[in-house]
Write a structure and sequence with these properties.
The protein contains 19 helices and 12 strands. The protein is an alpha+beta fold and about 450 residues long. The protein folds into 2 domains: about 180 residues, Periplasmic binding protein-like II (D-Maltodextrin-Binding Protein, domain 2); about 220 residues, D-Maltodextrin-Binding Protein, domain 2 (3-Layer(aba) Sandwich), CATH 3.40.190. The strands form 3 sheets. Strands 2-1-3-11-6 form a 5-stranded mixed β-sheet. Strands 7, 8, 9, 10 and 12 form a 5-stranded antiparallel β-sheet that branches. Helix 2 packs antiparallel against helix 16, helix 10 packs across helix 12 and helix 12 packs antiparallel against helix 19. The longest helix is centred in the C-terminal third of the chain and has 18 residues. About 50% of the residues are buried. Keywords: Signal. This is Extracellular solute-binding protein.
């Protein structure tokens, strides 16, 4: 559940909302290569947009990809414009349906974003290119679901409309020093995970970082449901391949286990009003020894944690976790230099740039963990690969329905504030079932 990945997510979803006009989206913000794009369409100019924050892991990787592109295309001018996530999210349809469309652009995955534009005919079908250049072999089946859409604009179809370069997922973060201080064994399965929670609590330490006025608490609730789910349930929930019973064993287990942990004090009721950044502060300040959250927190923790040892690992209570391929490159239908756009995407999938993504602390889709020199980054990539190799990326709970993010957040807060589990399940079911019925 990430701003909306159908979301208006998170990571990108963690960016502050900013109201902008379509005019602001058209105006260049930052350019590499300089000058106006007067040569667009002649194979001599590549216009590129992305919204990664300057000096972030992905921004640095894309800077390296642009530099590599210039080496291999010395006669091509690169006009790069850094946008905000919200600029592209709010105005993409209007801009891509005009002569101002860039040649290649980072865009948000999901039915309400890439799927919608693909259905409207605004994005280039990259299926044949993905096969010719081998991108489809470098990206796993589970990581490519959000890059592929059907004629209705729903993910998981046969046609590629985006090419992701990185992955994202939810995993465990452990304060190794606190585990040693309280003589708590690192969890290896769900039984030992709950044993660790109980031992910390007995020692007077609230074990779990959490926040319910943002995505984390909803992520926890869905992760608990996934621990009881199989591939069929995930496909039914995310892709509408079958009926979902919100009072079935998966979601019933989730709300009951969540309430049990709340009652036992494994996280605190006051966490109901906290934001995601408050959750990470609980971990960084050593008030909570365990945080289960997205890899998008990894870079900030690497910078902020100075006084204790910490590690990452797959959450041991479930073979499936929240996650997917990351946001991806798309080529607008009205792009003037599509071949150059394909060449740039190919560079971002190269061993050199994929390794750069990993060294910068993100999760490359096409680099092996043992090629990464940063040991913490290797831990992170290995954890992702554990899920990716077993079809264990189960997307996010708010993806199936536009606007569902707010429903999940409110329902989780209500659970923490004392609502009965069955009532919470009814809250989650109502908008989902309404939308599911409207599809037929």
């Amino acid at each position: 559940m990430t701003n909306m990945r159908f979301r208006a997510p998170r990571r990108t979803t963690r960016r502050a909302l900013l109201a902008v006009s379509a005019l602001a989206l058209v105006a260049p913000l930052t350019a590499c290569g300089g000058g106006s794009d007067t040569a667009a369409g002649d194979g001599k100019t590549l216009r590129l947009w992305h919204y990664e924050q300057e000096d972030g892991a992905l921004s640095n990787a894309w800077d390296a990809a642009i530099a590599e592109f210039k080496k291999t295309h010395p006669d091509v001018k690169v006009v790069f414009e850094r946008k905000t996530f919200e600029q592209i999210q709010q105005n993409a349809g209007m801009i891509l349906n005009s002569d101002k469309a860039p040649d290649v652009m980072e865009y948000n995955k999901g039915n309400a974003t890439t799927g919608l534009l693909a259905k409207q005919g605004l994005l280039t079908d990259l299926t044949s290119v993905a096969k010719e250049r081998g991108w489809d072999k470098k990206i796993s089946e589970s990581a490519s679901v959000t890059a592929r859409y059907d004629a209705n604009g729903e993910m998981g179809g046969a046609k590629w409309y985006g090419i992701p370069n990185y992955g994202e997922f939810v995993l465990s973060y452990y304060n190794d020093d606190l585990f040693k201080k309280y003589n708590v064994a690192k969890p290896t399965d769900f039984k030992s995970f709950e044993a660790a929670l109980a031992k910390f609590k007995a020692a007077g330490v609230t074990p779990l970082a959490n926040a319910a006025n943002d995505h984390p608490a909803g992520h926890w609730l869905y992760l608990l449901a996934l621990s009881q789910a199989d591939d069929t349930w995930v496909d039914n929930y995310q892709l509408y391949k079958g009926k979902v019973d919100f009072h079935g064993p998966e979601m019933t287990y989730a709300v009951n286990k969540y309430k049990e942990w709340l009652d036992k004090g494994y996280f605190e009721k006051k966490d109901v009003g906290l934001k995601g950044s408050d959750m990470t502060e609980q971990f960084v300040s050593q008030k909570r020894p365990i945080m289960v959250g997205g890899n998008w927190w990894f870079g900030g923790l690497t910078t902020d944690i100075k006084n204790f040892e910490w590690s990452t690992a797959p959450y041991p209570g479930s073979e499936k976790t929240l996650g997917s391929g990351g946001n991806h490159w798309v080529v607008p239908t009205k792009a003037k230099n599509k071949k150059l756009a394909e060449d740039f995407i190919d560079i971002t999938m190269s061993d050199k740039i994929q390794k750069r993504i990993g060294e910068e602390g993100n999760v490359p889709l096409a680099a092996k963990a043992d090629s990464i020199t940063n040991p913490k980054a290797r831990e992170l990539i290995n954890a992702f690969n554990t899920h990716q190799s077993s079809n264990g990326l189960a997307f996010y709970p708010d993806w199936p329905v536009a606007g569902y993010y707010d429903t999940w957040m409110a329902a989780t807060q209500n659970l923490m504030n004392g609502s009965k589990p069955d009532k919470v399940l009814d809250e989650l079911a109502a908008p989902y079932e309404k939308y599911a019925a409207s599809r037929h």
